[in-house]
Design a protein that fits this description.
Layout (H helix, E strand, L loop, with lengths): L2 H15 L7 H18 L3 H15 L7 H15 L3
Helix pairs in contact: 1-2, 1-4, 2-3, 3-4
């Protein structure tokens, strides 16, 4: 697994959330967190990126059954970053 795959998964996650932005600040905050994560990955701030994705996975845990594809993507990003931090 590579940084490029992590960036692809982050971009797909943002695309997934974008149509739901109008549903409130929680979605907008999620997109902002993904943008920050993307920046951290690009800047190779691996330890901070890993902490960030762990927090995001925790936040989404209560919603896994509603957005399983998003949860799986975030889990994969966490796995990728766990090997690079």
């Amino acid at each position: 697994m590579s940084t490029e795959e992590a960036l692809r998964l982050i971009a797909e996650s943002k695309q997934f959330l974008e149509p739901y932005r109008m549903y409130g600040p929680m979605i907008a905050d999620g997109i902002s967190q993904l943008e920050r994560l993307e920046r951290l990955v690009k800047e190779r701030e691996n330890a901070e990126a890993y902490r960030s994705i762990c927090g995001m996975c925790e936040q989404i845990s209560a919603y896994r059954s509603f957005v399983p594809e998003l949860a799986i993507k975030l889990d994969r990003v966490r796995d990728i970053l766990s090997h690079s931090s």
